[in-house]
Amino acid sequence: MSVARPGLRAVVLDIDGTLLDSADGIVAGFGHALRAVGVTPPDDATLRSDLGPPLVDLLPALGVPAGRLAEAIAAYRTFYFREGLQQATVYDGVVEALTTLAARHPLGTATAKRTDTARATLEAHGLTRFFGVVNGLGEDQPSKAETLAETLELMGGVDPADAVMIGDRRSDVAAGRAVGTRTVGVLWGYGSRAELESAGADVLLEHPRQLADLLLS
């Protein structure tokens, strides 16, 4: 499947592991959240392997009791807004790719972050200017697929067949396939080639500079 066929009307991107290497701040936030509710965090390597799912799914899997989940999420968010989001770095080549893409296609996000967190993260790293729609998980769209579908609605009711979803984890590819977009898996983030291939990504990319080449070809 060609992701650059005529009629492409929306390019939707994940944030963590796609635009930003945000692992250090997120992992530190996981540890802060777990300790806040009396749970001993696993080692950083284990926490890094868990990057991707929303907090409401991830924290219980790390041992947070259901009755203290809201407290753990609040602790994570407090830490992340105070310190964590500043620890991220923009991947080399991302700004150049977004500059080129935004001149040709509307851009949006579909991320496991809450929308306010996503916006604050992009603003902290000078990326908000590229996106017409910044959208993340919320109470009304608790899954990545629902978030992607809402993003396309917010972008003017774009037909999924005229859109592409770009991300670094299985959940990004699965969301695109569920909604009906084309899918691009990126290998500079937190997911492996095997993970993205088994998820069924239409195309895999090795470096951010390939994004513009692929979608404008």
From TrEMBL:
GO terms for cellular component: cytosol. InterPro entries: HAD-like_hydrolase_sf, HAD-like_sf, HAD_2, HAD_sf, PGP-like_dom2. Keywords: Hydrolase. Pfam families: HAD_2. GO terms for molecular function: phosphoglycolate phosphatase activity; protein tyrosine kinase activity. The keyword DNA repair does not apply. It is an enzyme of class 3 (hydrolase). Its EC number is 3.1.3.18. Signal peptide: none annotated. The keyword Ribonucleoprotein does not apply. Gene3D superfamilies: HAD superfamily/HAD-like, Putative phosphatase, domain 2. PANTHER family: 5'-NUCLEOTIDASE, PHOSPHOGLYCOLATE PHOSPHATASE. This is Phosphoglycolate phosphatase. It comes from Microlunatus antarcticus. The lineage of its organism: Bacteria, Bacillati, Actinomycetota, Actinomycetes, Propionibacteriales.
